[in-house]
Design a protein that fits this description.
Helix content: 25-40%
Number of strands: 11
Strand content: 15-25%
C-alpha cells in the first residue's frame, strides 16, 4: 500500500497514462461470435467435417447470417475443342524443277520475216527523186503563196440562200470579146481619228479596201493580160459587189470575166498608179497602198529567186519544169 501511495504522490508519475486518459473512449464492439466456442473449448468433441458457419462479419464490416445465403446451382461451362496441331493436307501438282530450269535457260525463238536487200540506187534514180522532191516543194509553196495573196474567205451565199441575183453579163469562163476584170483586197478595215469643225474629236471606221482593175477585150486566142490595165479604182465595196461596180463602167451589151489568178497581175504597179494619180486619197488610204506595194515587191522578189536559176551558157532560165 505504501508503495502505491508513494507512486501517486510522486510528482514524476503525474503524467502517466495522460495520453490514454485524454483519448476518447472506443465505441462498444458488437457481441462476439460464439458459434465456434464449443470447438475452441472442447476440440476433441468436434467432428472431422467442419460445421457450416451460421454467420459472420465480412472485411468491409457487414454482418451476414446463414439464412441470408442462397445456394446457386453449379453451371458447368463446356470446354472448347482443342485445336488441331496437325497441318492440313494440300494436294499440289508435281513440279519438275530441273525441267523448268532447262526451259527457262533456253533463248526465246523469234520468227522474223525475210527482208531482201535493196538494190543500190543509180544516178538516174537519185536525180529523179531529187527532181520530184523539188517539184513537190515548189507546188506546195505556190499553193501557200496563192492562199496568202487571195482575198479572205467569204461564206457561200448560195448555201445561206442569200445570194444576190447574178448579172447575165458576168461570165463564168473567159470568152473572146469579153472585158477582163480583177479584184483584190489591199488592206484591212481601219479606224481614223478626225476633228470636227467645232474642234471635237470623232472616230470614223472604214471597211476593207480593194483594187478594181479593168482590161479591154484581148485577142481571140487567150486572155493574155497586158501589164497596164485600162481602168483602176480603189473601192470600199464588199467583195460580192465589186463585179457590179466594174459592169457599171461598161456598155450595156458588154460582157465581163473576172480573172482569178493573182500571180498573173502586177498588183504593185496598179497600186502605184493609183498612189500617183488619185488626188483624193485620204492619209490612211495612201499609207495602206504604200504598205501593200512594199509587201508585193518583197513577194515578187522571193518568187523571182525561187523560180529562176542561172543558165549554163549565161543568163537565167526557169527552174520550174
Amino acid at each position: 500500500m505504501s508503495d502505491k501511495k508513494s507512486d501517486r504522490d510522486d510528482p514524476t508519475r503525474a503524467l502517466d497514462d495522460f495520453v490514454r486518459r485524454m483519448r476518447p473512449a472506443a465505441p462498444a464492439e458488437d457481441a462476439p461470435d460464439l458459434s465456434d466456442l464449443v470447438a475452441r473449448l472442447r476440440p476433441e468433441h468436434v467432428s472431422d467435417t467442419p460445421s457450416r458457419p451460421k454467420g459472420g462479419r465480412l472485411r468491409n464490416g457487414q454482418t451476414w447470417d446463414v439464412n441470408d445465403v442462397e445456394d446457386v446451382p453449379l453451371v458447368e461451362r463446356p470446354r472448347p475443342e482443342a485445336r488441331r496441331s496437325e497441318a492440313p493436307e494440300l494436294n499440289l501438282p508435281t513440279v519438275d524443277l530441273h525441267a523448268e530450269q532447262l526451259q527457262a535457260a533456253q533463248a526465246p525463238e523469234v520468227d522474223l520475216p525475210s527482208v531482201a536487200a535493196p538494190l543500190p540506187a543509180s544516178d538516174e534514180d537519185i536525180a529523179a527523186a531529187v527532181w520530184q522532191a523539188r517539184e513537190l516543194a515548189a507546188s506546195q509553196q505556190r499553193v501557200e503563196q496563192a492562199e496568202q495573196s487571195a482575198p479572205p474567205w467569204q461564206p457561200d451565199l448560195t448555201a445561206l440562200q442569200l445570194r444576190r441575183a447574178v448579172d447575165p453579163r458576168l461570165l463564168g469562163a473567159w470568152q473572146p470579146g469579153a472585158w477582163i476584170g480583177a479584184v483584190r483586197q489591199v488592206f484591212e478595215g481601219t479606224t481614223e481619228f478626225l476633228n470636227m469643225p467645232d474642234g471635237s474629236p470623232t472616230v470614223q471606221t472604214w471597211p476593207p479596201h480593194r483594187l478594181l482593175l479593168l482590161w479591154p477585150p484581148q485577142g481571140l486566142g487567150s486572155a493574155l493580160l497586158g501589164r497596164w490595165p485600162q481602168q483602176l479604182r480603189l473601192s470600199a465595196l464588199p467583195q460580192d459587189q465589186a463585179a457590179d461596180a466594174l459592169l457599171a463602167e461598161l456598155a450595156p451589151d458588154a460582157k465581163l470575166w473576172l480573172h482569178g489568178n493573182v500571180l498573173d497581175i502586177d498588183w504593185a504597179l496598179a497600186a502605184e498608179i493609183l498612189l500617183h494619180h488619185e488626188a483624193g486619197l485620204r492619209p490612211f488610204q495612201a499609207e495602206g497602198l504604200r504598205a501593200f506595194i512594199a509587201a508585193e515587191r518583197d513577194a515578187s522578189y522571193s518568187r523571182l529567186n525561187q523560180a529562176y536559176q542561172p543558165a549554163a551558157g549565161g543568163g537565167a532560165e526557169l527552174a520550174e519544169r
